[in-house]
Amino acid sequence: MKKLWHLVKRAVTSFSNDPLSGGDVERVERLLLLPEFELWWSMQPRDQRHSLQVYERFMRFYPPAKRTEQAAALLHDIGKTVSDLGWFMRIAATVCGPRGVAFAMYHDHEKIGAQMLQGKSEQRTIDLVAGTVDDVVMTALRDADCI
Fold it and tell me: What is the C-alpha to C-alpha distance for residues 27 and 98, in angstroms, rounded to an integer?
């Protein structure tokens, strides 16, 4: 039931695709390396907004986070851009599972995101985006993503 509630809240909060404020964009730009920011900027505004929400929660859960860990909070869903699914199709992909190429890419977003960050980000950020570490930072990031 908790997972279903999370999915419903995420769908409702991601409905708006309005651009972020200039102040929010500047805040992200200050935190990310230029190649990371360029990837972040390629995300749909609804995903940028979600990444900021996750970042803010992550910083409450893990205040001593290093820049690389903060970057992972902002970039944790970067791999979802490859699937090119809109709001409704993402809901369908979540319900139907990884059927078809686009839905499979959506579900494999952690691995894809890590690949996108190769050569653009530091290894700690890549590992956290990939979900391949098992430490307190990864736990805080996953908890922050459960909006």
Answer: 34
Please name the amino acid found at residue 97. G
Q: What is the Cα–Cα distance from 105 to 32, expressed in whole angstroms?
A: 25
The DSSP annotation for 66-110 comes to: -HHHHHHHHHTTGGGGGGT--HHHHHHHHHH-S-HHHHHHHHTHH
Considering its fold, how many domains does the chain have in total?
1
Whether residue 22 is contained in a domain is answered as no
Q: Is residue 24 part of a domain?
A: no
CA atoms within 13 A on the CB side of 31: 25
Cα–Cα distances in angstroms (integers) from residue 8 to residues 50, 51, 60, 65, 90, in the given order: 14, 17, 23, 29, 12
- The answer for 119, left when phi > 0, alpha when psi is -120 to 50, beta otherwise, is left
Q: Quick check: is 88 in a domain?
A: yes
The one-letter code for the residue type at 112 is I
Task: Residue 110: give the domain boundaries.
Answer: 2-15+33-145
Q: Tell me: the pLDDT tens digits for 44-96?
A: 998 999 999 999 999 999 999 999 999 999 999 898 887 776 766 667 667 76
**Residue 126 belongs to some domain of the structure:** yes
